[in-house]
Amino acid sequence: MIPYKNFSACTSMIVGKNASIDGSIMIARNEDSKSSWPKNYVIHEHQEFDDEQAFSSNDNGFKLTLPKIRFKYSATPEWTEKFGLFEEDGFNEYGVAMSATESTYTNKLALGADPLEEDGIGEEAMITVVLPYVKTAREGVQRLGQIVEYYGTSESNGILFADKNEAWYMETGGGHNWVAQRIPDDAYAVISNQSAIQEINFDDPDNFMWSPKIRDFVAENHLNPNLSGKTFNFRKIFGTADLSDTYYNTPRVWYGLKMFSPELNFEPTSQEMPFINHANRKLSVFDVQDFLSSHYQGTPFDPIGEGSEHDRHLYRPISLAKTQEAHILQIRPNMPTAAAGIQWLAMGVAAQSSFVPFYAGANDTPKAYQNASGSYAPNQAYWTYKLAGVLVDPHYVKFGPKLNDTKAKLRVRFQQAVKQADAAIAGLSNVELGDYLTKVNFDNAQSGLNAYNSLISDLITNSTDLSPINFTQDMNL
Among 140, 240, 442, 456, which residue carries the largest CB count within 10 Å? Predict the structure, then answer.
């Protein structure tokens, strides 16, 4: 029996190319699951097999036959394969970006008509069986949609896709139905564990996609609550709007709108906030980083702010201790494919970590980002960033400024590194470009680790006098 609702949770953001300051398309997400569950960052090389490959999930037994050709792709899998891969996010060699998944929930009425499939595809498998086999974002939606239709899905999810031309958000509903919406070029969207997509325009296949039988399914099972029955609001038909959404989900969307569309007047608990929005300015990669790192700063609801005890713990924040990694998949215009995509990766909690830029066209990842262990190890990227946060947590007022100063300096350093690398790639062959971008990525990764190890040293040194068994000594003794 599959539980109706659990609390695996993430927060996502999508930015269209005309909504960004430099023409980039960005899809981004915090991967939230467990407070101490390391991630790796790997690159799978292009492979061509003699026979079709068989995929079998360690998570729920889902099985799928895969094509003979697997494109090169990056991913951030779990530290152990015991419970499944959960590769989560990455780029492939054709410049397609994918992030999977934003956990959502289907309401009981829809589940009664189309229950989840216990051995259907789930979050654990989606990157692995989709990203290496598509050449555009639209193809990604179509491939995953066909899998959901035929095999079913074991859970409700939102999935982010992008390429150099467009970004898409796809949602599943029940066991076999799905829809997808192209994010308008001049818009952005923030999503937080609820079905987000609203009205589907079945006369506009350029901007909407859907499972072929979804309209008949909804009509036959009397699922559309609209009084006239003439509109098709996916969120209303398949989604939830209960008390857990009110305190766990909607406040995160509200804070995103507060950051980027402050003229909109919604309460944190509103169930009517729009999926597609327009910002009051052009958005940069730093704006997306700030959103993924946020915890209601400037409001009474900040858990480390100055609100009342009640308000500070009223709503679930965007960045929290259970974040395993946060990523921004940025696709920049007028660049060769290998250099256009940057996978900004923050290991651990985004509010306490730094987003390191990794060019998608690299050939390898740093050793510190591979083969993570389930318990603390000093030479692993996840644990280095995690340790800094653990040391800051008990003394946020004292040590928070040190952490923020490190983060600010790295932002500038990484932005300069990207600018310098962009200027150096002209005229490089494909082989030279891959080798060069690999070196740039390794250098950027090391800069981040060096800065955080220096911060850790400072934090430990300055923590030595903060013990609860300390005592002010009489200078005359």
Answer: 140
Give me the DSSP letters along 201-242.
Answer: -TT-TTTEEE-TTHHHHHHHTT----SSS---BHHHHH---S
Using DSSP bridges, classify how beta strands 156-162 and 97-104 pair: parallel, antiparallel or unpaired. Answer: antiparallel
Cβ-contact 147, 64 below 8 angstroms: yes
Q: What is the mean pLDDT of the chain?
A: 96
Q: Which amino acid does the sequence have at 220?
A: E
Q: State the number of CA atoms in the 13 A half-sphere of 302 facing the CB.
A: 13
> Which positions are catalytic?
10
441/298 Cα distance (integer angstroms): 35
Q: What pLDDT digit, counting tens, does each position of 295-316 carry?
A: 999 999 999 999 999 999 999 9
229 C-beta neighbours (distance < 10 Å), count: 11
End-to-end CA distance of the chain: 69
Q: Is the dihedral of CA 132, 323, 9, 253 positive or negative?
A: negative
d(CA 73, CA 80): 19
Query: Do 210 and 202 contact (CB within 8 A), yes or no?
Result: yes
- pTM higher than 0.90, yes or no? yes
Q: For 57-70, how does the pLDDT look when each residue is reduced to its tens digit (9 = 90+)? A: 999 999 999 999 99
Give residue-wise pLDDT tens across range 52-98.
999 999 999 999 999 999 999 999 999 999 999 999 999 999 999 99
One-letter amino acid at 449 equals L
**Per-residue tokens: 313:** 């713990």
Token pair listed for 5? 């609702």
